[in-house]
Description:
Largest sheet: 7 strands, parallel
Helix content: 25-40%
Structural class: alpha/beta
Radius of gyration: 19 Å
CATH class of the largest domain: Alpha Beta
Amino acid sequence: xxxxxxxxxxxxxxxxxxxxxxxxxxxxxxxxxxxxxxxxxxxxxxxxxxxxxxxxxxxxxxxxxxxxxxxxxxxxxxxxxxxxxxxxxxxxxxxxxxxxxxxxxxxxxxxxxxxxxxxxxxxxxxxxxxxxxxxxxxxxxxxxxxxxxxxxxxxxxxxxxxxxxxxxxxxxxxxxxxxxxxxxxxxxxxxxxxxxxxxxxxxxxxxxxxxxxxxxxxxxxxxxxxxxxxxxxxxxxxxxxxxxxxxxxxxxxxxxxxxxxxxxxxxxxxxxxxxxxxxxxxxxxxxxxxxxxxxxxxxxxxxxxxxxxxxxxxxxxxxxxxxxxxx
Length: 327
């Protein structure tokens, strides 16, 4: 992605899991990158190799503070908004967190972009959970109506709506990327991380939330980065005010199969799987989408396809996370 008019880039949440991989790609391609992150989920370790680079600026700040985000957006050509609270389960007990971290922050960011007037392009990290419990699988971008079943999904859908409104009202353009479950190096939450932790605590058994039949798509971080840049290249050449792409894998893997893969990679022969039974017909928690499989045909048509399927992504991630613990 080398576009002469785009030199100075802001990445919100750039010290987080997906955001830091994005920063690596951008820095490797010689962009001037500013990261703003409050480090509630991210870590400076994720971007430490760039801290002394003249093309890199790190701002520790919270997007809920309008003054901080106004400063960060000054003289930027492109904004990647990847900051969010990604924990879906917290919505059941503390729904205000998703409202504040995912909706208040995008409003502040859009207001700052409008005020600065330079960053006319925004790339937003959305999620498969905006579709809710879709009845069409694989689920295409134009599926509807979208009825989120979690406050996380609702907050992301609300953010998409705000972005679209600002794009059409204030002469901006927006690329919205709806991610499946992204896994890979630096992951700190999610089922793979949880299973590793539980099995390290007790090899004899593994608690699995829900009934174990939940099926979802998992995408390796390198494939995710390729998809981001492929879709962005296409978007920057077009004229759409708002464009949307699903970003996922061509298949699904069940929670029980993930448990088996993690146990295999840890060398634990047949731990006892203890299913909690979950809620609402076997969901892991309130708001857990039991069956998620995104259509990625739109991305395929512009030249992208993932190198790894869901099982391969899970297995590679398990190996890498276990290896990083030994290092």
